[in-house]
Amino acid sequence: MTGRRQPFSAAVTGVGMVTAAGVGTKATWHSVTQETTPSGVRPLAELVDLSCDFMYTVDLDTTEVLGVAAQRLMDRFAQLAVIAAREAVADAGLEPETWDSGRVAVVIGSAHGGLPFYDQQHVAMSDRGARRVSPKLAPLTVVNGAASSVCTDLGAHGPSMGVATACSSGTVALGTAHQLLRAGVCDIAIAGGAESPISRLLIASACRMKAVSTRRENPAAACRPFDVARDGFVVGEGAGLLVLERPEHAEARRAPVRAYLRGYGASSDAYAPVAPDPDGHGIERALRTALADAEVRPDEVGHVNAHGTSTVVNDLVESTVLRRVIGDHALVTSTKAMTGHTLGAAGGIETALTVLALEGQLVPPTANLDVPDPRLPIEIVREEARRGAFDCAVKTSLGFGGHNAALVLTRSA
């Protein structure tokens, strides 16, 4: 088959978030738009004595929400996904008891899956032998565990899958859901990302890689995207899920539409395991593909929620590509200083924030951006949220292994 596919706009009818910035969409949005100092970052006992001994964590006892029995069947990343999914489905006005469950898909991205449980079981075997390893290791730690748990919790019987493309996983999951809806495979898709990488082994490796900030004296100021003094990202946990529907399905049930997911593009750098292509050709290809898929011109993009990790190379490459493709007129921000870098969940959380930005015509500031790197070719929104007038927004993501993805969202179909 040749030629470009017909444009397709998936209706966003529900949003659910559980982040270090706040439990629930309302709390998270308030924090990223109204607060100037991150409150969810703190030292962890699991990371003691590491050069980076702090993380962004969600202030939530999931046992109180899910109950002891259900919680024991899920690692924390899946627990956060279930809680976010419940909020998104309720926000969409959907009732799982009455929907056509075979037409409901679930696509959730995660970079590491149930990493904390792996850590626990490794310690158990090292200290007490193989007979102490849990038989639940495989089902609790697989990357598709979040999607499986959400399907079970909500009674969704359509296609279900986990997506693992490192830090672009949540964005790729949303793009995959968009494609499933476009193909008519389902009428509803619950999609996004979930991650809870509270792992001494992972953070120790990140420290050795020099990918994470070592500002132990002031963790709240450590994550500073696009700032001249940035020295690495800060890992976080969280989940962000959207309910996407075929537009005629949303219209038939008279559901309010919060935004439309209109275009998706993905690419591979084919360059290096952890470093992005310094020329940015991979993320540029993904961005141009998404714009073409949405049939949107670069000058129509009014807002970009950037990947903005707070690493020297990523921020420079990404900002250069944004200037090259879109120009310097769009309101660009990174929200990672408030949520942490949630790895595979980042695309889900940040796309949810992009939906809210479109809906409210308000762009969150980039926290901790005190002195912008003078090498950056674009202006970044900082200090306070900025009002705008835009009908189109973009979400970009870059992942280890050279996995790039971009989404185009609009206020109308």
Portion of residues in beta strands equals 15-25%
CATH class wording: Alpha Beta
Strand runs, count: 15
Summed up, the helix count is 14
**What is the distance, rounded to the nearest whole angstrom, between the alpha carbons of the first and last residues?**
26 Å
Mean pLDDT: 95
Provide the gyration radius in Å.
Answer: 20 Å
Number of domains: 1
Describe the structure.
The chain has one domain (10-410): Peroxisomal Thiolase, Chain A, domain 1 (3-Layer(aba) Sandwich). The strands form 3 sheets. Strands 1, 2, 5, 6, 7, 8, 9, 10, 11, 14 and 15 form an 11-stranded mixed beta sheet that branches. It is of the alpha/beta class and 413 residues long. The two termini are 26 Å apart. Helix content is 34%, strand content 19%. Helix 8 (169-182) crosses helix 14 (346-360). The model has no long low-confidence stretch (mean pLDDT 95).
Task: Itemize the secondary structure elements and their pairings.
Elements: E1 10-19, E2 22-23, H1 25-34, E3 41-43, E4 54-56, H2 62-66, H3 68-71, H4 76-91, E5 104-109, H5 115-128, H6 137-141, H7 145-154, E6 160-163, H8 169-182, E7 188-195, H9 200-209, E8 238-245, H10 247-252, E9 259-268, H11 281-294, E10 303-305, H12 312-325, E11 331-333, H13 336-339, H14 346-360, E12 362-363, E13 386-387, E14 392-399, E15 403-410
Parallel strand pairs: 5-6, 5-7, 10-11, 10-14
Antiparallel strand pairs: 1-2, 1-8, 1-9, 3-4, 7-8, 9-15, 12-13, 14-15
Helix pairs in contact: 4-7, 8-14, 11-12
